[in-house]
């Protein structure tokens, strides 16, 4: 199993052990807004931690961390161009497998500019992109996100995160991979399983998005267990909990 979206820097050492003993082999840890990301230096300090401290803490428990770097829409510094200039260099690190999480929160002009330029970098260098959608005005902002992706980036290289029933009808018409975030205040394992029953497993990945907000490190295994109990095939379970995200991020089997 792979947890396709976490924020390892906000979690205690013990969570990684819990995940590993529950059968999770790896996770994608994404850049976000753990501090007020006021300047280039703060963003770089955050990235350095994701690249060094957290993979080491996870590895000590047998959990492999893969990394996504980018400017989160709630973490735009006053000098985003300096971060973007450095991004191609940072992406060359072999542990970095995606640009993310990027996207829109309020849909402001600056958010749109920073998102679009990061999509271009990812597209030029051939990296997948992990795209955040907000809790508030989700349908409206998700449409705005899709407009920006359109013509900038190949949809099949994008994961649209934190999808819910409000946005699924629009998103299933696209080529994007869709992230089901199973989290105490977002979606229960049962709710995720209902969506998978309705829409199939080809286009979905499961994750906990565990952070300093209410989170469950066992979101993915709990959803897998629920799928087993409801008679989903091994193939379908493997797709959403492992195969789809490995294929997209080009993470090889252990
Ligand atoms: Zn996140």
Bin the helical content.
Answer: 40-55%
CATH class: Alpha Beta
Average pLDDT metric: 97
Can you list the ligands bound to this structure? zinc ion
**Total helix count?**
10
**What is the CATH architecture descriptor?**
Alpha-Beta Barrel
Main beta sheet strand tally, sense and closure: 8 strands, parallel
Query: What structural category do the secondary elements indicate?
Result: alpha/beta
Taking Cα atoms only, what radius of gyration do you get, to the nearest Å?
17 Å
The string of secondary-structure elements, in order, is: EHEHHEHEHEHEHEHEHH
CATH topology: TIM Barrel
Q: How much strand content do the residues show?
A: 15-25%
CATH superfamily: Metal-dependent hydrolases
Total strand segments: 8
Spatial strand arrangement across the major sheet: 1-2-3-4-5-6-7-8
Provide a short characterization of the protein structure.
44% of the residues lie in helices and 16% in strands. The protein is α/β, with parallel strands linked by helices and 254 residues long.
Structure in words:
This protein has 254 residues and is of the alpha/beta class. It has one domain: Alpha-Beta Barrel (TIM Barrel), CATH 3.20.20. The protein has helices spanning 13-21, 40-51, 53-59, 80-91, 109-125, 138-149, 168-171, 189-199, 219-229, 234-249, and strands at 2-6, 26-30, 64-69, 96-103, 129-132, 158-160, 177-181, 204-207. It has an eight-stranded parallel beta sheet. Strand 4, helix 5 (109-125) and strand 5 form a beta-alpha-beta unit. The chain is globular and about 50 Å long. The mean pLDDT is 97. Zinc ion binds at residues 5, 7, 30, 32, 101, 209.
């Amino acid at each position: 199993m792979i947890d396709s979206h976490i924020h390892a820097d906000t979690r205690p050492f013990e969570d990684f052990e819990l995940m590993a003993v529950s059968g999770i082999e790896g996770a994608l840890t994404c850049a976000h807004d753990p501090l007020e990301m006021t300047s280039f230096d703060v963003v770089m300090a955050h990235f350095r931690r994701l690249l060094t401290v957290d993979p080491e803490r996870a590895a000590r428990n047998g959990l492999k961390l893969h990394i996504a770097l980018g400017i989160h829409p709630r973490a735009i510094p006053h000098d985003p161009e300096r971060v973007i200039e450095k991004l191609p260099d940072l992406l060359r690190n072999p542990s970095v497998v995606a640009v993310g999480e990027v996207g829109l929160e309020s849909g402001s002009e600056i958010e749109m500019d920073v998102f679009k330029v990061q999509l271009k970098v990812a597209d030029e260098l051939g990296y997948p992109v992990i795209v955040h959608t907000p809790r508030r005005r989700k349908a409206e902002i998700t449409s705005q996100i899709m407009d920006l992706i359109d013509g900038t980036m190949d949809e099949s290289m994008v994961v649209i995160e934190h999808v819910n029933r409000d946005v699924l009808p629009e998103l299933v018409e696209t080529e994007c991979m869709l992230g089901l975030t199973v989290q105490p205040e977002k979606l229960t394992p049962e709710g995720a399983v209902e969506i998978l029953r309705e829409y199939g497993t080809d286009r979905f990945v499961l994750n906990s998005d565990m952070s300093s907000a209410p989170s469950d490190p066992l979101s993915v295994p709990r959803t897998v267990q629920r799928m087993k109990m409801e008679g989903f095939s091994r193939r379908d379970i493997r797709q959403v909990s492992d195969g789809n995200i490995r294929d997209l991020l080009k993470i090889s089997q252990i």
